[in-house]
Structures are given as C-alpha cells and as structure tokens.
Amino acid sequence: MKILAFNGGPRKTWNTATLLKKALEGASSKGAETELINLYDLNYKGCISCFACKKIDSKSYGKCALKDDLTPIFKKIEEADGIILGSPIYLGSVTGEIRSFMERLIFPYLVYDSEHSSLFKKKINTAFIYTMGVNEKSIDILGYDSHFKLNELFLQRIFGNFESLISTDTYQFDDYSKYVSSAFDPDKKAQRHKEQFPIDCEKAFELGVRFTDLK
C-alpha cells in the first residue's frame, strides 16, 4: 500500500508540513509505504486549457498533455492507494501552488457528462489538511467553508472517499515581536500552539491510520 502526501505550503517544517508528516506516520504505523512531496520544489504551471485531455481519439485523452515536473507525479498517483493534500490558507484560499496542482490533477479525469463520471481507474482515499492563522469563528465569517466544500466535491467525484482536517489559529512566527502583527495576541497564540496543535497532530496521525483501511 502506498500513500502520498503533497505539501502545498512553502515551508517544510511548519504547521502544514508537520501535520502531513504526522498523517504519513499514521499510515506507516500500519505498514503503508509513504512519500511526502513538496510542491514548491517542483517546476510546473496550472492548466493551460488546451483540452487535449478531452479530445476524442487523442493520445492524451484522460491525462494531462503538459510535460513538466508533474508528469512523473501523476504516474505515482495512479499507482497510489491514497493521497493527502495539505495547504495553509492565504487570502481566503489554498496556495496558488496547490491550486495549480489540483487543476492539472483533477481536470483530465473529469468527464463532461451528466453522470459526473471519472476516468480515474479506481477508488482511493483522499484528504485535505488545512492550516490557518484565523480562529474557527472566522471560517464562517470569511466564507472559507464554501471553498473547502468545493475541494471536497471534486476530490470525491474523481477519487472516491474524502475527509478533511482543519487546524485553526495556528502559530505563524517564532517571535511575534519581530513582525507587524498587532491583530494577534502573542501569548494566546503561544498557548494555543502548546495546547491545541499537539491534538491536531494526533488527529492527523489517526487520519493516516484510517487511510490504510480502504473502502
């Protein structure tokens, strides 16, 4: 069994990366082979709307025709038993890096028919781990939930099972005094990180464990 995780954040040791690693630890504890891929290390762009993946009798029907660093990644995904996406929330949405990745990943498998068909050849577990500096109340106020539901809709349609983990009010800096950040209370941030983030790490680990139980 192979589980892949994709870090859509630029930092490799901070909140999103840590939770993804914990999820992979959970999967590994059940014997799964795991791999973490940092998208910011790769050279690629989003969908260019060439529609080669939709063209009748095209050699690229059902797969992305662009050739770049994502080409071998997509082959790995077709051989995987589960994929976990992770991203911090920037300006109310996931990072541009993971959004471009999702365009390239999902669109070739999405069929333009009334049955909402998928060209992906099997059902696999998928998940999305979100991290953000705002608190839980702000999710509804800022409309984040509609964005999360749209990601869920597409991942479920193409791949099958889906779940998400949302880590809120995360610690953003090592030292808040070095940054213009008067909207936040550094002491409360530190306390929140000390008390809640370990719980989120446990949830991520458990998510990874569940990934080894394919439905």
Commentary on this structure:
The chain has 215 residues and is an alpha/beta fold. Helix content is 37%, strand content 17%. It has seven helices and six strands. The chain has helices at 15-28, 71-79, 96-106, 136-141, 144-159, 186-195, 197-210; strands at residues 2-7, 33-38, 82-90, 93-94, 125-131, 162-167. Strands 1, 2, 3, 4, 5 and 6 form a six-stranded mixed beta sheet that branches. Helix 1 runs parallel beside helix 7. The model has no long low-confidence stretch (mean pLDDT 91).
Write the layout of secondary structure elements.
Blueprint: E1 2-7, H1 15-28, E2 33-38, H2 71-79, E3 82-90, E4 93-94, H3 96-106, E5 125-131, H4 136-141, H5 144-159, E6 162-167, H6 186-195, H7 197-210
What can be said about the biggest beta sheet?
Answer: 6 strands, mixed
- Average residue pLDDT: 91
Q: Could you tell me how far the N terminus lies from the C terminus, measured between alpha carbons in angstroms?
A: 13 Å
Number of continuous helical runs: 7
Portion in helices? 25-40%
